Amino acid sequence: MLRLIVFLLSMVIPMAALAVEPDEILNDPVMEARAREVSKGLRCVVCLNQDIDSSNAGVARDLRLLVRERIVAGDSNDEALAFIQARYGDYVLLKPPLNARTYVLWLAPPAMLLLALSVGLVTLLRRRKKPVPQALSEAEEHEIKQFIENQKVGESK
Amino acid sequence: MNRTLAFLPLLIAVVFGGFFLWGLNPDRDPNEVPSVLISQPAPEFGLEPIVGVDTPGLSRSDLVGTETAVVVNVFASWCVPCRAEHAVLTSLAERDGIRLFGINYKDKPDDAARWLAELGNPYARIGSDVSGRVGIEWGISGVPETFIVGTDGTVLYRYVGPVVGEVAVGKFREALVQAGALPREDL
User: Fold this and answer.
1) CA distance A63 to chain B (A)
2) Could you tell me which residues are beta bridge partners of residue B71?
3) What is the pLDDT of residues B55-76, one digit of tens each?
4) What are the tens digits of pLDDT across the range B31-60?
5) Does any CB of chain A come closer than 8 Å to the CB of residue B9?
6) What fold does the segment set A8-92 form as a domain?
């Protein structure tokens, strides 16, 4: 059993491997860590739903090298991101920025959640309201009296 | 109140239906990466000519103050679709008199020279981008990509992939007409 688990784990580990090649890695571990942080937010423009760290595409490699180049040149993480964003647009960021074009994207989910919750709440509250017992009208009272009397007459016969 | 509420499902269906209609549109390519360069000045760059090829190099200053809009084509000898596209570009340059510039992307000079010798060289200028760094400045995602640059150095149009086949060539020629590089009757 243990063997099987070890075997399965060893088969899974390569999937988590990054495409970052040894010759790209910076000597300074702090800078390298920052480059990884920046890379996580950058989309590979060839394979679209991968970040550049996990993509083997040529352009992804170029972008990884470029990120490192900017960081070595003294850019902050945000500046390095902005540098690439200026060339490839908002599209290259895996997390879309909040601006006039993305209001619907960012605000629709909470708005829909609020709408759904309020509709649900109103429905529940309405259902809980018990019907208020109403007094009988005079005509109804009279009718009932007659009915009971008729019954009594019927019983005594 | 209740009467208006009765129309709510219809309204929701219409909204969703609209989204589906948009999503199913066959002309929409979800893989398309929108370019930030359109209507922007062409990026700053300067490229040396390919070693062993007589064609001069290409830099940003060559794109400013041109007589008509020019075509900038990113190509490489290792790129198979580029080979298919080559005939179209040659015809544009030789038959229609379009001024064609090239960026030789991540290519070995020897390979590029052999490729141009074999297929012909329709380019007025070719910059050799061995590192691919200028490709990033242009925001390309692969080769081939073809841009139309206006006389003032503004990027007017970008075509991703090979300009091959009736539809693609038609689109590209239409863009050239709009850029003023082709007369309308040549469409």
Assistant:
1) 8
2) B100, B148
3) 999 999 999 999 999 999 999 9
4) 777 778 889 999 999 999 999 999 999 999
5) no
6) Helicase, Ruva Protein; domain 3 (1.10.8)
